[in-house]
Amino acid sequence: TEDGLAIEDILSGPMIRQDPELTWKYLIQIARAARGSRYNRGHEVIAEMEQHFERVWTLTQNVDGFHRAAGSRNLIEIHGDLHDIYCTACGYRRHVDDYDALALPPRCPECRRILRPDVVLFGEFLPPDKVQTLFAECRRGFDAVFSVGTSSVFPYIVEPVRQAQLRGRPTIEINPGESAISRLVDVKLTLRAAVALDAIWTRYCQI
Which of 18, 92, 120, 181 is surrounded by the fewest CB atoms within 10 Å? Predict the structure, then answer.
């Protein structure tokens, strides 16, 4: 970065405590670079599946909030959502559409302590409640598990696929590239998520 630090260091738990203004400077830059982005047809299909089937859960590493915006409700946003900010001292929290109106660094209107995004920064632990939900739903099992557009480098992202395989349930990967599970799944679709999910859902609805 222009400050001579690795982005992993700037967007880390220790850094937001030591130098919140620097961390927020880059968070705001990231938010501005993504301005105008929105969910795509793939997000919409997943939300439509949730409304159609008895039980659909979405595990996502993304912090953009697109799944929720598209209509999904059974979500495990394992790394959080950049739009949710909270106070590091008291119980204040709020949802913001963007960071434009925030000061640098933003402070709690109730106690004046620093606000931070409700995301997992580098070096921080995953939220225990979300991990518990993930493993609880995996124990219940699914008829099929899709891995969509992820490199699958984290064990907790691979876990639903692994559990499905142990139960003899079909596993499908949708990914234009290779990932850590590409050679393990039953079906590999080398396509982009929006294209593949829309085609699958269109065909299913025609049956």
Answer: 18
